[in-house]
Design brief:
63% helix, mainly alpha
Length: 156
């Protein structure tokens, strides 16, 4: 059996578990950055114009190396935004990556966008109402505590 030389001896640092290489960002994190990149590159994203059906295929063809999963997530984030849904209610039609007409928005699609907008606004109003109620309860609680301190507090 051979003894380890000075260069082969294990130092305390060598015994510590090695940090694993940084994990690949989650698809949702990649998707948010991808969406920002798409908004910088294509005005149709920045202006929230209704996108052509199959825009994902156009993007995959135009941007080689694009991963499908983050792209799908980015498109989902974009097309479910309130601004996009509002634009889809009123826009005359869909556009491709270059802003050229690329199909119509059906009455069913307009109705769906309108329903999503109404539901989102209703939920936001409900959340604001609940927040105001919670703040009012907190103020009432603080006032009651103040009254109790005044009534039962020891004065020195």
């Amino acid at each position: 059996m051979t003894t380890p030389s000075a260069s082969q001896e294990t130092s305390p640092e060598a015994l510590k578990p090695q940090a694993s290489p940084p994990d690949k960002p989650l698809p949702a994190q990649n998707a948010r950055q991808l969406l920002k990149d798409l908004q910088e590159r294509f005005p149709v994203f920045r202006d929230c114009q209704p996108l052509a059906i199959g825009i994902d295929k156009q993007l995959m063809a135009r941007l080689p190396g694009l991963e499908r999963k983050p792209l799908r997530i980015a498109l989902g984030i974009h097309t479910h935004s309130l601004r996009y849904l509002k634009a889809s209610e009123k826009a005359p039609g869909r556009v491709d990556l270059d802003g050229q007409p690329a199909g119509e928005i059906t009455p069913e699609q307009r109705l769906h966008a309108s329903e999503l907008v109404k539901e989102r606004l209703r939920k936001q109003a409900e959340q604001r109402k609940m927040q105001r109620q919670a703040e009012a309860q907190e103020r009432q609680h603080a006032a009651k505590l103040g009254q109790l301190v005044e009534k039962f507090g020891r004065s020195t």
